[in-house]
Amino acid sequence: MKFINVAAFAALAAFSASSFAAKTNSIVFDSNHENADGTPYSTYMVKCSNGKKKELTAWDGRKKWCVGDATSETCEKKQIKAAKAACKAS
Description:
This protein is 32% helix and 37% strand.
């Protein structure tokens, strides 16, 4: 019985901690660029619920979204997933 109580408390604590993570408030286009190879990409700014702003870069005609600048390796196929990852990291 004690084990079940401890497990339930741990699960509740983990859920509560994740609910306090910063959320995405808005995603706004910033500008278009080209890297050194001439590959075009766009930058967007993500505003998070904790007041911080994070940069996203969009590649391949907005088919690949990366958290951070043009050198980032943290990428997603969907804009919202990348934005959530950016806010979660802040």
